[in-house]
Write a structure and sequence with these properties.
This protein has 471 residues and is of the alpha+beta class. Helix content is 32%, strand content 17%. The two termini are 24 Å apart.
Length: 471
């Protein structure tokens, strides 16, 4: 007979590690993975979710961390265990990446095997002594783990993390929380409409009394990477084309006038040792990220493709705005005017999207205003005004200049009756790490310890306990 589950009775102190032991919070995303101790303001460990792999005779060698994925090693190829929609596809690599995020800054790494570390000569005697002894210490034996997940995660995608945490890492207790709910908690709201504009996707999550309303949760691919694709199209169709050459290919450069061809000497690699094209793509994305942070903006007021109050077009008005300068790694530099608004306009107006064979234009239903409308249409009509008065905007791509003002304008045009209020952290750190911060707050609450799934409960009920407990 299966024992009844209860989330009102606190497990024994030994089951979850006790209040004296700090819980860990792990917040994996498509672009960045964040990890740190509950109760702290920011995550101590922030690493790229990308990894490098180098082929060898013995099999591929995997590299993790900021330095590893940005160093042009011979034949390095870049991968990501998480798909563009935020769901894990490669669990083995994801496990190693997350473990690196935890052990590199937060806990001790596993000790090397004394039989093979080269420090002991008489391995035969050692082998006899080590029989029956676990040779590797597990990284989370003393720390409960709270982990975030997307609102559209699959059943297998929900069960696998608790398996990894309990069986591979030895954590005494575990909890899985929706990232949208955690972002609401980080803003001090139990009910909110959370709009998270990340790297690979934008999510709209209605949260009511701390519970995610699944029917109203929406996801669309118009996010940071989409803006990067729009910039690539703008650069390639410009006259002349704007070069996008990463830093690692530049040996030296000479200053040139704005719009003049670059004068740089380029680095070459011996045949057969060039980094994989995926490495170049990641380095190009770093340039585009810098460009988005310093040049790109969202047009206000009205739509870029519309008319202004003086009878002219907003495109003409945009051309009269002050242009922003930007210098590419090879020295090419230019003033960017209307292009800086064009790259983001299709987040709100699909007609303004640039497209080609490999980058199809989004449909009108994929734009941010329409996704929000779809989300609100799926929730109870009585709570819609409350959600609209508690709109929380988070995610690194929401930091683009003018984003919040344009979003408020679009929402007020769609919903003239209810009062629209947007809450968005002013701090870059809080905007980028909102779901981690929400997890840090939640896992450090004294009343939360009764919610943990203990190792004992996991052993009794298996990984399916996540579906029952973590709603």
């Amino acid at each position: 007979m299966t024992a009844t589950l209860s989330n009102t009775t606190a497990p024994n102190t030994a089951d979850y590690g006790g209040d004296e032991i700090s819980a860990l919070v792990l917040d994996p995303g498509y672009s960045v993975t964040r990890a740190g101790f509950a109760g702290e303001d920011v995550p101590k460990s922030v690493i790229p979710s990308f990894y490098g792999s180098i082929p060898s005779v013995a099999g591929s060698k995997y590299l993790y961390g900021e330095n590893a994925v940005h160093t042009p090693l011979p034949n390095i190829e870049i991968g990501n265990p998480v798909s563009q929609n935020g769901v894990v596809e490669d669990w083995d690599t994801a496990t190693q990446l997350w473990e690196y995020a935890i052990t590199s800054r937060l806990t001790n790494t596993k000790p090397s095997n004394p039989l093979t570390n080269g420090l002991n000569d008489k391995t035969d005697e050692l082998k006899q002594e080590m029989e029956g002894v676990e040779t590797q210490e597990r990284p989370l034996e003393e720390n409960p783990l709270l982990m975030s997940e997307t609102g559209w995660n699959t059943g297998k995608g929900r069960e696998k993390p608790i398996e990894i945490a309990m069986e591979n890492w030895g954590t005494p207790a575990f909890w899985l929380a929706r990232s949208g709910v955690l972002s609401a908690f980080s803003a001090g709201k139990a009910s909110a409409l959370v709009i998270d504009v990340g790297a690979a996707s934008t999510s709209i999550t209605p949260v009511h009394d701390g519970i995610m309303l699944k029917k109203g949760t929406m996801r669309c691919p118009l996010a940071g990477n989409y803006i990067s694709d729009q910039l690539r199209l703008i650069f390639s169709t410009s006259q002349p084309a704007v070069p996008l050459t990463p830093h690692y290919l530049i040996n030296s450069k000479t200053p040139v006038d704005a719009g003049a061809p670059s004068q740089a000497t380029y680095r070459t690699f011996p045949a057969g040792t060039e980094p994989h094209p995926s490495f170049r793509a990641l380095q190009e994305e770093r340039i585009l990220t810098e460009f988005k942070e310093s040049v790109v903006a969202v047009w206000n007021p009205g739509r870029l493709g519309g008319h202004n109050q003086h009878g002219g077009t907003n495109l003409d008005s945009a051309r009269t705005q002050n242009a922003r300068p930007f210098e590419m790694p090879d020295g090419y530099n230019q003033l960017f005017g209307v292009e800086r608004y064009r790259a983001t306009e299709s987040l709100f107006d699909a007609k303004m999207a640039l497209s080609d064979a490999t980058h199809p234009a989004p449909t009108p239903s994929q734009t941010l205003p329409q996704m929000i409308a779809q989300s609100l249409s799926q929730v109870d009509v009585d709570i819609r005004p409350h959600l609209l008065s508690n709109v929380i905007v988070v995610g690194g791509s929401s930091l683009i200049y003018g984003f919040n003002e344009r979003l408020k304008q679009e929402l007020e045009a769609m919903y003239p009756g209810p009062r629209v209020r947007i809450f968005s952290p002013g701090s870059v750190v809080e905007r980028k790490f909102s779901s981690w911060i929400g997890g840090s707050i939640l896992a450090s609450l004294g009343t939360f310890h009764q919610m943990w799934i203990s190792k004992k409960e996991y052993d009794e009920h298996g990984p399916g306990i996540v579906e029952k407990r973590c709603k």
